[in-house]
Amino acid sequence: MSQQQVQVSEEKARAVAEESRQKEWKNPSFMKELFLGNFRFDLISPYPSRDEWRPEFESFYSALTDFLRDEVDPVEIDVSEDYPDHVIDGLARLGAFGMKIPTEYGGLGFDQVEYAQVMELIGSFDGNLTALLSAHQSIGVPQPVNLFGTEELKRKYLPRCAAGEISAFALTEPEVGSDPARLSTSCVLDGDFYVLNGTKLWCTNGTKAKLLVVMAMDPETEKISSFVVETDWEGVEVERRCHFMGLNALANGIITFDNVKVPKENLIGKEGRGLKIALTTLNDGRLSIPNSSVGAAKYCLKAVREFGSSRIQWGVPIGKHEAIAQKISDIAAYGFAMEAIVKLASHMSNDKRLDLRLESAACKEWNTWRGWQIIDETMQVRGGRGYETESSLRDRGEDPVGIERMMRDFRINRIFEGSSEIMHLIMAREAVDKHLQVAGTLIDRRAGTGAKLLALPKIGLFYAWWYPTRWLAWSRWPRYAGYGKYGKHLRFIDRAARKLARESFHGMLVYREKMERRQMFLFRLVDVVNELFAMAASVSRAHSEEQAGTADAAHSAALCDLFCRMSRRRVKQLFRELWHNEDDLKYRTAQDVMGGRHIGREKLLDDLDPSGRAPRRAAAAAS
User: Fold this and answer.
1) 119/413 Cα distance (integer angstroms)
2) Residue 134: which of 123, 145, 144 has the closest Cα?
3) pLDDT band (50, 70, 90) for residue 7
4) CA distance 366 to 535
5) Residue 417 is among the residues annotated as catalytic for this protein
6) Which pTM value belongs to this model?
7) Which residue, 496, 541, 58, is CA-closest to 294?
8) Which of 339, 417, 430, 503 is catalytic?
9) How many CA atoms lie within 13 A of 167 on its CB side?
10) What tens digit of pLDDT does each residue of 525-560 get?
11) Which of 176-190, 385-399, 514-528 has the largest mean confidence?
């Protein structure tokens, strides 16, 4: 591919991504304000809480807990690599497939906080069930149809979903991951039908689904639309089931569409709005995985507490050894912060006062990253017993704690529903949004000299006020006087937010039109704001519990303080690495590797390749 073709492809991809963004900010956003250097603690404090649950929810939650304990064996699901029929049927009878579907369509009508509590419970129990229910509720048919579907479409499909018909989401293709500009599945309007052709890869729940949400592109307009497709329609074919490192029961498959006729009324929302619908749906949908991650973290905390207290080494429990104690304290503190941010975001999703797009992305990225670290450290604490399977532990008469299974199942969460890198890119775009609005002309390669000169007065006027205010803060400090021991952390967040805003501006001055390619610079800015969000949510939660005099207030205060101290150190390190790093050297090295200049490092694989490719290549060459 020529350089010109690459540039055209990149420009097209950026244009498609930009068009699908929600450009307007109708409601305030805590994290957007952080990116601009404004610490709006008032937006998240006091911390929202729910002292009592609705009787309908309590009844379901209790019944689900009993069902999981008495009827579901995660080891059996893992080993058999399938969901037993009695498990699927039991979940359907409980109404678990209709948790977020309104009651008028046969669902349970749970709000986001109630749903979050269920996903936390299931996340502590089994990753396979988490994936099944999360994919169905969050990115399958229920959510987009409920938000954007016509009344006819809702009445046609939501009752079926609530009754237990499993749904799936079909966006990814063999040659297309997170780059929708290259989507090849086509939709062509022909009378009263859209005709779909193409192949979709990695459709979670796809091999069991009765209903699909399918993204397809009109080849003439190059606009992407979203449709409800039934898997028993002519031309829909599940080609194969995919298998993975973990989530052995995951009903994930490749699905092809060969001249599939989709009725016009099965269009979700408006024509050409498919990507925007998907992104809007995920604002709430992305909270499933970080809530389930909290459940996994709580399971790990219990596992290290019990093992750290009972396992004796050199005459004392291993939890008394400093090296192990450090890991246990990290698990406790990070788990507290994980719960703080995602419960906050779940409440925010309910009240609709704030724009949630950045917070949901942050929860997904930060909780899956910290969750993975927690599981890794839990395995290290348990040693061989962490690496050993539950079945083997049980057969030897030991407590069958499933850290090995949890590790295999959890790893995909940093890839599901937008990989960590994509979450960073989404958030990085918003980090510089205001600067692009004000000074975007200066870094636009397509803008002429005249346009840039005309933009200078407006740019100068804005930054003449904005930039100095990112330094001056004497009037801000008294506002934290009433927070006692938490004030030092709040003042740090305030200072760091203003520094974050300055550094993003400095980056645009230094890199200008190359800024979009400085991904590691942008990613560090995102990592800083994620840490600040986690700190602010933790402080808000701990302070509110203290004010309310809850039983756990003292424990929350201790975990909050520890977490904030650790997070402050990481933020300082990230700021330093913005300008002192090996990014350019690493990039050049990667290009050398891809160009074959380090191929000698692979020499052993010429004759010995565990994938089996070398013998096949040798046989092909001989023939």
Assistant:
1) 14
2) 123
3) very low
4) 12
5) yes
6) 0.93
7) 541
8) 417
9) 30
10) 999 999 999 999 999 999 999 999 999 999 999 999
11) 385-399
